[in-house]
Structure formats: C-alpha cells, structure tokens
Amino acid sequence: MDIVFDLVAWACIVAGLFFMLTGTVGILRLPDVYTRLHAAGMTDTMGAGLLLAGMAVVTVEGMIHGEAGYGFVLVRLVLTYAFLLFTSPIATHALARAGLAGGVQPWTADEEGGA
Amino acid sequence: MFATATVGVLVSMSLALVRALLGPTVYDRVLAVNTFGTKTVLLIAVLGFLTERPEFLDLALVYALINFIGTIAVLKFFEFGDLGLTRRISREAD
Amino acid sequence: MLRAIGLGAVLYGFWISLSGHYTPLLLSLGAVSCVLVVYLSMRMEVVDSEGVPLHVAGRFLAYLPWLMKEVFVANIVVAKTILHPKMPISPRMVVFHGSQDTDLGRAIFANSITLTPGTITTGVHGQEFQIHALSAADLETDEEEQMDARCTRVERGRRA
Asked: Residues C81, C136: one domain?
C-alpha cells in the first residue's frame, strides 16, 4: 500500500518538475514577452499543480498512518493551488496589457522570414 | 523524493533568474520575477515537507499572495508612474 | 443581506480551516474579525453579485474539472512546442466574440482563456476578447467555442 502511494507521489513530483523546467526553458527560448507568458503559464498551472499534488499524496499517506493535524496540511495545499490558479491569469493578463500599453510589438514568424 | 524536488525547483529558479538578467524589456524582467516568485512558493512548500515541518505551508500561502500583489504593484507603477492613481481617477482628470 | 451572511459564513469557514484551534477565545476572535470584514466590505459596497458571486459558486465548481482537463491537454501541446528543436510557433492576435452578458461571466471566460497555456487574453472590449495565441494550430480547435458556451452556462444557469 505504501509503495503505491510512494509511486504516485514520485510520478506527480517528477511530472511537475518536468513541466516546470519545460516552462522555464520556454521562458529562455521563446522570442518575445507575449510568447514567454505562455511558457510561464505552464509553470503556474501544471508545474505547481503536480508538485502540490505529489505533496498531497504524501499527506494523505500520513493521514492514513494516523498523523494528527495532516488534514490541515491538505487544506493548505489546496488553498495554495487555488490562490495560484486565481492570481496567475490576472498577473499574466496585466503583464500582457502593460506590455501592449508600453508599446512592445508582438513578435511574428512572418517578419523573420518564417523562422 | 523531496530532495529531488528541491533541486529541480532550485535549478528552474536559477534559469528564471537568467531571463531576469537578460531582459531585454522591463516586462520580460517582471515576468521572470513573477515566475521566480511562484517557484519560491513551491520551494517553501517542498522545504516544509523535506524538513518534515508542514507548517511552512502557511508561509507559502502568504508568499503566494504577496508575490501577486507585488507583481501587480510593479506593473501599475510602470503603467501610471504612480501607485495611488487608478484608471478611473486618471480618466476624470483628463 | 443574504450575500453578506454568505460572505461571513465563507470567511468563518476559511478561518476555522486555517486555525486548527477550537478554544472559545479563538473561535470568538475569528467570529469578531469575520463580522468586521463583512462590515467593511458592506461599507465599501463590494458585497454585490460581482464582489460575492455566491450564485455561480456551485456551477463554477462543476466547471472546474473540465477546465483542468483542458489546461492539462493544452500544457502537453505547449510543452511539445517548446521542446521541439525548431520550435514551430506562429504567434498571432485574434478577436473572439464571447456570448457572456455580465462582467462576471466575461471575467471567468477571460481568465479561463489565459489559464490555458497557448492562449492569453490581452484585452476585453464589451464582448470582443482580444486573444494572443502561441501558434495558429491552437486556434483551429473549437476549444474556445466550447469554453465560451460553458462559461455562459456558469453565468446564467439552466436558462442558457
């Protein structure tokens, strides 16, 4: 039983790290600020979500083993993710709008000769 | 398990810092700092589990809120040049 | 008034779930601060259908699983694009016509679009949503239309 929990937790954390690192690589590779926002969104949704899910699995395992007070840990994990889900799109939207208002032109593939 | 997660989050934080240093526009830097903040939230949470002190999650929760407010404040500063102005007041002043 | 009571109940539930202490002193302190927050919110006139959208809360929670599935699928697509050696992106701005009536519905729709990697709402003018897409392929699917219909359903309930 514990092995199942451990495997699920490992899978969640490794997948979360994968999405987080991919998002960061995207932030480095993509050409302009608007396209980088897409990559940053990946980190905020899947990267954070799967990492927190992995921690939630470990917490549930602890609860089954009778650790008192782990229910509150679970509540906090869910709330952290809820905060991230609510704030991330607003920050992204504000950043995109501020960029447009500041006169940063979106990069297009056509200008670069279809690069 | 959480040691791996800590290392992974730290690596991705340093990559985000590279973008913050490279720029080129100020919005790229704000974006990088915002992502860095999200990763800090996760780092605090992971460290809490690594040291078996899940109370750290309270800090993560508060940091998530501060990070969001900080990003919005910086963006507002660049858009209006002032933290006190709002769109409605600036329109009335026109 | 019902909204004010609902807001107070939600705040108190939030307090209890974070505090973890059930002594009379702490419980009453929590109640006092919740009443204070509700009073201040009423003075700020934010306790309305937009500030305390309790009427859509149930439908919104029912919408979340579908949204998370979409986020997951879009994440895999964007991850493939980023890790592709040639990085086949073709970013563009498009205008999408949404069908929501209220600002609350538009906010839910705009944030759902932004939350899905590959598409970002950069501006909302009335019912026109200005969207920045990472690649043209993201726009060929009918994901936006489906999301639009579901957000309108969240906003209006059974009537839609």
From this structure: yes
